[in-house]
Amino acid sequence: MNESKKKQNLRVKGNLRLFLILPALMSLLLIAVNVWIYITNKRAGRFLLIFVVIYILMVTFLFVYSRAQIMRDLVDFATQYGLVQNTLIKELGIPYGLFMADGQVLWMNDLFKKVVGSKLKSQMPISRYMPELNANIFPQEENVIEKIEVHFGDRIYNAEIRRISVEGFGENERLIHFSENAEHLIAIHLYDVTELSTYIRANEEQQLVTGLFYIDNYDELLGSVEEVRQSLLMALVDRKINQYMASADGIVKKIESDKYFVVMKKKKNFKALEEDKFSILEEVKGVNVGNKIPATLSLGLGLSGSNYTQSYDYSRVAIDLALARGGDQAVIKDNKGITYFGGKREQTAKSTRVKARVKAEALREFITVKDDIFIMGHKMTDVDSFGAAIGLYRAVAALEKTAYVVVDEISASLRPLFEIFDNNPDYPKDMFITPEEASDMADSKSLVIVVDTNRPQMTECPELLQISKTIVVLDHHRQSSDNIDNALLSYIEPYASSTCEMVSEVLLYIVDNIKIPNVEASAMYAGIMIDTNNFTNRTGVRTFEAAAFLRRNGADITLIRKMFRDDMGSYRAKAEIVRNAEVYRDKFAIATGSNLQVESPTIIGAQAANELLDISQIKASFVLTEYAGKIYVSARAIDEVNVQVIMEHLDGGGHMNAAGAQLTDMTLAQGVAKIKELIDKLIS
């Protein structure tokens, strides 16, 4: 009875219903046509009426007597269609399964069961057999597909994970009872990519790695040994390099007296070199035939998946970066980025000033053809950056051109020196301009000179680097991967004590017999003095020669000392940081400074880091200070620890023995924990 009633209640809808009632609608049209013809010709109208009546009777008969058969056929089709769907999914050639939100098995097709085997039962989470497929990686929104790689047995699968809503399932339609909180199911496809992964891996292993090996202190090395032993020294270095590459199944070709071209497969041989941190860097230092300084290598390795020409170009970029960072290190460049190894030894300062003269002559050419010249240092300008900018301002003025020094925020430690120029009637009022003013004044024909930094985001006005097409960089920091890459002239010398030292040498050659006013010479001398910590750190022969040049031009040491004395509050803040310092692993001093109540806490932090190095057994010091919503890290070392490598992991940089970084979205405690983590990584 109920079944008969259900059949009577069956209704069709949509296009199918329209298709069934269309003949009835045609009957209305025929009746209207019949009326019009009857009015025109009654005899023809009566004759047509007979055919209209017959058509209506036929339509009525078909609709009444065929409707039940049509409905039965539709039900049979729907039933068969559902069975076909179930069969297709069940026998689908791709492993497919449905799971609860927590990963419990709900249903799997035959191929999915074949993949996981017969052990996986209902109500058991799939993550027990495939740990990668856990609830943590399931999509949290609909129309989102998560794709991960799954290893199961000896096969590799790409898993596509989708979220399917259970909303809309009627209670009578559910074969399984879902809890009230159940809102969705998880559908997982598995694609077997074992063979594809094998071929991709084999292709990667066959890729060639090209490299350039440079003896970065070749001239100094030969000059430190007797002439009769020079050939023996180079033969031993050649042998070390050839033996090292032979162990990696590589090829070495000496292209110049101090340069080598190498080729090797990326396979396990190159990976082995990475794992031993390119021990050739240390091996060549052991070559000794009476040479007073050890040989150091710079390695540039390039790897591109597209072609070998690109790999060679990468190796050239890598070797340039290794040399710019001071040498004695390996740099690997590939499509993913840049990796550094080594760099434990400070580059030897060259006694010749040929490079300084060449750079000075090139800079003079740029200055003489430009009308708008902007000089800027890094954010939170320090004494070295400011002094170098003043020195270049003098060079531009000596060439009878006008320059502007871009300065934004003046720290308390720099203010006494800044005010000497700012309130001096001998200098124009527009000598110092803000970054906003510089952006408005500059155009594509302007000359922009960047001092004391080679990272675009660290400059006072990064927008100037986009506006101008002529950019010059002078810096003494080791070059990083995110350097200013569109500079037409780049003078980067990591061995230099300060940028003021480099600018002092440039001034010697840019204009003959240049005269430097006393205050400008004092500003540059102060930059050298501060960066070398009163000539006790990173000083060489050329450092003292630059200082002597500035003294001859009237640099006032007494004035400098008076300007950079600490007030009582700053001295107490520095002493408090040192007092609360923690010694980590018996060798590293870590201290923090918060609420210091001083105008320039970052300067106090840097000074405290220098003070901590005076404690015996301390190899490196790290001071973290809070300022303007950020945490500033000052890192210092003497010779055994490369703090630049540590700071680069925090997106910072600097020198081997003096570096820094800025931390955001992090507390002081989290910053200290991060420093300790990096120290542990360095030791391991």
Largest sheet: 6 strands, mixed
What's the N-to-C terminus distance? 82 Å
Strand order of the largest sheet: 7-8-6-9-10-11
Which regions have little confidence, pLDDT < 50, spanning 5+ residues?
Answer: 1-8, 169-177
Tell me the total number of β-strands: 23
Report the portion of residues in β strands.
Answer: 15-25%
Nearest-integer average pLDDT: 84
Global morphology: elongated
Kindly provide the radius of gyration, computed on alpha-carbon positions and rounded to a whole number of angstroms: 39 Å
Q: Helix segment count?
A: 23
> What is the helical fraction, as a range of percent?
40-55%
Judged by helices, strands and strand pairing, the structural class is alpha/beta
Oligomer: single chain
Short description:
The protein has 23 helices and 23 strands. The strands form 4 sheets. Strands 7-8-6-9-10-11 form a 6-stranded mixed β-sheet.
Properties at a glance:
six-stranded parallel sheet, six-stranded mixed sheet, 23 strands, alpha/beta, 23 helices, single chain, 44% helix, 684 residues
Topology record:
Blueprint: H1 2-8, H2 15-40, H3 42-90, E1 96-99, E2 105-108, H4 110-116, E3 146-152, E4 155-165, E5 184-192, H5 194-205, E6 208-215, H6 218-223, H7 227-247, E7 251-256, E8 259-265, H8 266-275, H9 280-283, E9 297-303, H10 308-324, E10 329-334, E11 337-342, H11 354-368, E12 373-376, H12 383-398, E13 403-406, H13 415-422, E14 432-433, H14 435-441, E15 447-451, H15 462-467, E16 470-475, E17 489-492, H16 499-510, H17 518-531, H18 541-552, H19 557-563, H20 568-579, E18 582-584, E19 588-593, H21 601-612, E20 620-627, E21 630-637, H22 643-648, E22 653-654, E23 658-663, H23 668-683
Parallel strand pairs: 9-10, 12-13, 12-15, 13-14, 15-16, 16-17, 19-20
Antiparallel strand pairs: 1-2, 1-5, 3-4, 4-5, 6-8, 6-9, 7-8, 10-11, 18-19, 20-21, 21-23, 22-23
Helix pairs in contact: 2-3, 11-16, 12-16, 12-17, 16-17, 16-18, 17-18, 20-21
